[in-house]
Every structure is written in structure tokens, then in C-alpha cells.
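#structure-requests
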Amino acid sequence: MPADQPSGNRVTLAHLILLVPWVALVIDSLAPVRDNSYLWHITAGHLQRAAGSVINSDPLSFTMAGESWLTQSWLAELFYSIAEERFGLGFTGLMLLLAGLVFTVGVGVYVYDQSKSVPATAIIALLTATLFISFHVPRPVLFSYPLFVLLVMVWSRPALRWALPFLMWTWASAHASFAIGLVFLAVHVLWKREWRAWPHLLVAGSATLFTAHGLGVVTFLTDFATARPYLAYMSEWGTPNFLTPTLLPFLIGVVVLIFGSMKGRLRPDALWLIVPFLLIGVSASRSVATAWIGLLPVLALALRGTSWRFGRGFPVPIGVAVALLMLALPFLFAEASAIDEEVFPVAAMPHLVDVRTFHDDYAGGFLIYTEAFTEGVFLDDRAELYRERIREFVEVRADVTPWEEIFERDGIEQVLLNTDEPVLRRIQDAGWLTIYEDEFFVLLRP
């Protein structure tokens, strides 16, 4: 019997490693809320429920008020709105935990089904857990990960492909990354030469055109494509650094693919899948996680049949005791799901007045959620909407472009920025007064 398989009364190291994603998942899920995008999505959900329709123009800012803008994540936003109304932000941790659980279990089940190896499953599960630490956020992209894994699993079983239109409709209603799912299906057809599967792909793609925005799903994609120069100003759209601890697993995954090719487990035709998803992975930091999911079929094949020999394992009672400890331990380090006051200007809120305010995109999501301003915010992280204003803001904040003209044009009467912003000294030298200051934020008015 292979050493990586239990002998009936033994628990192996590989089995215990499979629980590591759970530990990371619990700790990460129950941390304070630090995601600005998530907060404005909640408000967008409130507005759509009140109006009884999806949003077609910007209602959240005074700089782009009334401009054409579609809520690509309308389904997720409706869910946020209902949950927040009933439970407050306390539901966030449970939502993250459940979505992450579906995702990680799905990855484990799929990889084991394809690799037939517990060690291979443990290796990929561990790499996946490490990689997704920085991507496990409550914004709508959260739902794209389990939906993509379900898509991969459904496609691997032809008898289940009737579910593809439902998965794609849900994904297109929750996040614009659904297009990557269609890419996966298309290249998988080419890789496996499943020419009779094209109707499944066409029906799945057509389902995305029947969301609340109809053909607006195409607008989502074109908006992001044409906004690429402005997205570059946001760190999540920058070039990924694969030498950082959280992105290093992707680089290890590339090594795994090379290893699988050398062992003859991957044939040259696997490049149909490998090349597109490697390109997606290196295109932007926020694309790495989605690209990893697309590569799961070839990663599983690259490690197919893997075994290791690290002793005979542990007796079942000891293995169960260690497993229970791993299941319970993360709750000791978990924190309540609340607003992180080091990230958002919570303490500065009582000192704000309801006037047009200059602030960054991160504070923008929080200020939208708290309904701090009647006219709306200066900007948030919707780069596809703000476009040129994103570049303009970055240059003003860095004290590269003079602030006076922008303030006069937009009627700015208040400034709320992080304490380390270069432009602050210039504004203070011009006579603006410090109304409030703490370790993280400064509030100025003339």
C-alpha cells in the first residue's frame, strides 16, 4: 500500500495538511473589515432595492454624478444590502467563511478526483490557501472564486454540463470576471478537442446576456478594456510580484507544471490551457487568483499519482485529536467583523462637515457607506468610471500637479487624507487649518 494512504488505522501527514486551509480561512474571514469596495457595494444594494431597479448612472459621487455607470455586481449588492440590514456588518465573517469553504472544498475535491493522490491534493490545497490569503475579501469578486471552481468541476463531468448556464448567469450577475470562465471553457474545448461541446459553451455564454443589465455585460468588459491606462494607477491592477510570500505559490505552480511535463504527465496540447492562464496571471495582481483556478486541471495532472514516504502516519486517535485542535485553534485568534479604524477614518467622522471633500479612493468607499456627504464623494475605486480623474488625483496627492485649480473647479472645502500624503504640507502652508489629526488621518479646512 502506498505510504500516502492510511492503512485503515493511520492518519497521514497529507491528511492533516488538508486542514491548513481551514485554519487560514477562519482567521482571515473573521478579521476586521478592511475592504473599501465592499462598503460602497452595500450602499449600491440599498439604492437598488429602494429604486426597484439596477443602477445605470452614478449616484455615489459629486464628481461623476449622473454619468453612465452600470452596477456589474448587482446580485451580490442586493445580497449585501439584505444581510447588512438584518445583521449589520457582523454577517461579513460568516459570508467569507462559507464562500471560502465552498471554494477550498471544491478545489480539494476536484484535485483529488483528477490526481487520485492525497499528497497531490494536500500540496495544491496548501499552495491555494497561501495564494488566496490576500484575495479573500468581501467584495463581489469573493463569489467568483467558488463559482469558477464549480464551473471547472461541472465541465469535468459531461453529465452535469446542463448547469453551466445557471453558473454563468450567476457569475455574470455577481462580477465581470465571468469572461475568464468563458475563456476557460473555450480553451478546454480546444485542448481536449471536444468539438461536440461547443453548444454547451454557446448556451453558457448566451446566459450571461440575460442578467438585469442585458447587453450591459458587454459594456462592463469594454469599459474595463478601455480604462486599462487608468487602472494602472491602482495597486491591484499593477504587475504582480511573484516573489512576495502570498504570490509565490503561483511561481511554485509554474515549477509544478514543468515537473509534470518532464514526467510525461502533461502533453504539449496542454499548452492550450496553460498559455492563456499564465498570461492572465501575469497581467495584473488581481488576476493571479483567477488564473490559478484556471490552471487547476493541469496542476492536478502534473501531480497525478504523487506519493511520499514520511513514516507510517499517526494512529487514528492521535490524528483525530490533532485534527480537532486544528479545527478549533483558529477561533482563538479570530477577531470580530467590524470596521478597521486603522484603515478607515472612523475617529475623524465626528469632525467632518457635509461639504465637498478631497479624499482618496480608499476613504471613498467608507464615506459612501456611512453616507457622510449629501452630494456624494470625491472618488472611490471605480476606475472604469473616474478614468482621467484617477490620474489627476494621484498626481495631486503626490504633489506633482498643483492642487489649487482642482479644488477651485470641484468646489473642495475640506481635505481628509492619510498623514503621510506629500500634498498635505502644501495645503497647510496655504493657510488651511488642521481640524483633526490622529496617527493615521488629517482633516483640513480653510
